[in-house]
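Hi R.,

Here's the input for the zinc ion complex you asked about:
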Amino acid sequence: MTAGPTIGVDVGGTTTQVVRIDAGVPATARATTTPADPASLADAVTAAIAATLVDGELPARIGIGIPGQVEPLAGVVRHAVNLGVGGEPLALGDAVRSRWPVPVLVENDVRAAALGARAWLAEEDRLVPDLAYLAIGTGISAGVVLGGVLHRGRDGLAGEIGHIPVVPDGVRCPCGLDGCLETVASGTAIARRWPSPDGRSAFALFAAAEAGDARAAGIARDVAGHLAGAVHWLLLTYGVDVVVLGGGVGAGDGPLFRAVQAELAARAGRSALARHVLRPDRVLAAPADRPIGALGAAALAADVAGSQEQVSPAGAYGKEAT
Ligand SMILES: [Zn+2]
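And here is the predicted structure with zinc ion in place:
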């Protein structure tokens, strides 16, 4: 008898990604649209998982990453604002377990993605014990892995640095404070500061700055300076080996990443300590085409289930199930 697959799910504001891992090899990646109505979210996640299984097949375990405040073992989600989930708990774990009676672990999406980033680095022959994953998307948040283990903190909020105020008397943040990091450097903030009709404000802003637009260059430098500051905090606060930039805005080795690298280099040029901490090989961009969140959710489920299964580097992420 062979063990069933490990399933990893990444529930995003617009897209839900599912990976299926057979005998350690990621074989299938699928993307579906996340429903706008939270009442249908659990059904949609269940359907997305079912689409990766053949009839009657039982997965070995399921990991799910989702925005918001999460109780991992209970599988309960609260305050996933972009998904319409408020203070009323969403029992996502129970809903999935009622379909498949197997271990189901739910985790905050960025925390889970930190494990996916670590798995990606391992594939690149760079297995590090300590890593921070800085997700820049609609909001900003970090996931931290210390000694190979996800660091959640007492309430799962370790790494929620997007809500640290960085601009005195800045723009009011939905969290209630003024001038949070998210209000100046998230995808939402960039769209406000540099509106783009195609919805790709971050790319448009940094491309315009690189092309010599003076106003764009000023905003881009401010955004990149705040993101470089976040990288600097993470390196010094947690002492991690590497900070990986990811998320819908932060992934990919493009103009935003180059601007952050330039800001870090400017800091390093002024200080021997900064030069030591901000070495270029300690700051990387996650590949934009890799389902890092879903792979991290699968890795987390495998860890918690006590499985010895390792995710092999030989995975063919591009394969689409039909
Ligand atoms: Zn805030």
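One thing worth noting: The first helix runs from residue 41 to 50.

Cheers,
M.
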